[in-house]
Amino acid sequence: MVIKKMHDMGIRSEHAYLAGVASIGLSFASWFTSLKTEQAGTARADRWGIFVGEWAPTFMALGLALSHYEQQEGTLTGSLHAVKQAS
Q1: Nearest Cα to 58, choosing from 29, 7, 17?
Q2: pTM of this prediction?
Q3: At residue 29, does pLDDT exceed 70?
Q4: What is the distance between the alpha carbons of residues 15 and 12, in angstroms, rounded to a whole number?
């Protein structure tokens, strides 16, 4: 039901995959920023990096679930067909 609702809201598998990749970059950026700007040391920076890094698998799993839903509903092949016609 959640995946159908997300799909109905216009969220596609590509969006979830992109969010997963972005969260990996954000994980590194938050670790590096915390390490350089806070006086708490490496342990705190590691916690920030791990916290944000844990989002990536969730986004990838949502992307996979959305991809399966798109294939089941036929929306993936329909959107690919539209892209081929536009080319």
Answers
A1: 17
A2: 0.72
A3: yes
A4: 5
